[in-house]
Amino acid sequence: MQITTDFLILGSGIAGLSFALRAQAHGQVVVVTKRAANEAATSWAQGGISAVLSPEDSFEKHAEDTMVAGAGLCHQVVVDICAREAPEAIKWLSETGTRFSRDDDGQYELGREGGHSERRIVHAGDISGREIERALLDAVRASPNITLLEWHMGVDLITLSKFGGPDQCVGAYVLDERAGQVMTILSRATVLATGGAGKVYLYTSNPDVATGDGVAMAYRAGAEVANMEFYQFHPTVLYEPRAKSFLMSEALRGEGAILRTLDGEAFMPRHHALADLAPRDVVARAIDFEMKRSGGEHVLLDISGRPADFVRSRFPNIHAECLRFGIDITQQPIPVVPAAHYMCGGVTSDLHGRTTLPGLWAIGETACTGLHGANRLASNSLLEGLVFARRAVERLAGTMDELRAAPHPTVPEWQTGSAAPSDEAVVVSHNWDELRRLMWNYVGIVRSDARLRRAARRVALLEEEIREYYWRHLVTRDLLELRNIATVAQLIIASAASRHESRGLHYTIDHETTLDAWAQDTVTKRGVLPHLRGR
């Protein structure tokens, strides 16, 4: 089966859907998402979107907070663009139907999170992502120019160079999971908006869909990838076996929650001048240190010092979810642990979302724009997706007549060859578990040269096993996801091993100093070892 379209978008989070809504005025749009569309990581976001909307704040303050958190690797031009374009992005979301929290005067109710010098987080209670996703999906489903393909997953990008043509992306092979068939989708522009790769780690705040599909596909197709060593671990995920990766929003600490040891001591003042409002990388390492020092399996997050009515009204979802597990956050502290949360690296893109592979665009968490540097400032992620979706559509809109002048190329349909249905799926589940566990143990919050070497050797063996399995059997979503997280794991390990310093989210006990000479991006491409490149 073959489909042709103007815009092919892989992913249904804030970046993909906002791109689709803006692009539908310029042509036909196909959105591919590998489960139900509302299962994107955006739906899990609790905090909100950072934007300068108060007279006490300024674009310069927002930019400075971003640069400080990014530990010297943020691209100043990108930071300035995002800070200045944030208010328009909020306005567009509101006009699209997002119901943000407002005060009695109808103004946006602004929250504050770690690393921010002012209150600038526009939110919808503590379910901001869910509300944004709802509004965007409602608008997408109402558009006659947008086709939404749920339970479909990208297998590989289609590049003409594979068939003797130029180095250009013209679409993707896509698995229809329910039909068990791979279809061909050809497009004028292919947009990767598949989110992050939290499932490469054993513990993550991400949904199950976050398996690094976009980065892996782009890398295999020859696009450039950067800064994969910088994986952000959210400091506070609920430690409860019955809860599946439930996030304790950073906004809790912004509203006065205190991190404590199991014996009740507030420990963050020992680790940073901003104490509980320190940047995420600092807080995650501090929790990791305190857990290892005490031998405890978690620490405590305590907001019981704030009025109970305030806590219930500001964090209704968190309050209700914790109550399900017998924890009344108005009266008792919450057991929390760090977990893989956000991929600061990704497919390199320019100021309009273009990657190094012609015809391919990357936006949202899949992209490495230069905004986050070595550590993302809280609530800048949803903002980045909105800003670059708009910028990408604006750039593409001016070229669509030229792109449509050329017919869609003729490419072969997906070939299954001698591949057969799997009769040993245990290989997939076993390799999946082993890979995620070794990444957590060896390439987690604190690293070392020896751990990275061990991880590289083992992942190379796993990747060989996965590759052999992949060519012998018909593709399934589980197999494709395993293949992708193995690729992402290799990229993270190689990038981390090449950076001989500690900076932002990359902390290694063998190179604890941050070096000015290393304030460069770590760039890699298929067949080329990771190397540093100046900004």
Task: Describe the overall structure.
- This protein is 35% helix and 19% strand.
- The chain is α/β, with parallel strands linked by helices and 535 residues long.
- Strands 1, 2, 6, 7, 8, 9 and 16 form a 7-stranded mixed sheet that branches. A 5-stranded mixed sheet has the order 17-15-10-18-19, covered by helices on one side. The protein has a 4-stranded antiparallel sheet with strand order 11-14-13-12, with helices on one face.
- Helix 1 links the parallel strand 1 (2-10) and strand 2.
- Helix 2 packs across helix 3 and helix 5 (213-221) packs across helix 14 (477-498).
- The longest helix has 24 residues, at 449-472.
- It starts with a strand and ends with a strand.
- The model has no long low-confidence stretch (mean pLDDT 94).
Write a concise synopsis of the structure shown.
By secondary structure, this protein is of the alpha/beta class.
What is the beta-strand fraction?
15-25%
**Large-scale geometry:** globular
Helix-strand category: alpha/beta
Terminal CA distance reads 43 Å
List the helices and strands and how they pair.
Elements: E1 2-10, H1 14-23, E2 29-33, E3 49-50, H2 59-69, H3 76-96, E4 110-111, E5 121-122, H4 128-141, E6 146-150, E7 152-159, E8 169-176, E9 181-192, H5 213-221, E10 225-226, E11 231-238, H6 251-254, E12 258-260, H7 280-294, E13 299-302, H8 308-314, H9 316-324, E14 334-343, E15 346-348, E16 360-362, E17 367-368, H10 381-397, H11 400-405, H12 426-442, H13 449-472, H14 477-498, E18 521-525, E19 528-533
Parallel strand pairs: 1-2, 1-9, 2-6, 9-16, 15-17
Antiparallel strand pairs: 3-5, 4-5, 7-8, 8-9, 10-15, 10-18, 11-14, 12-13, 13-14, 18-19
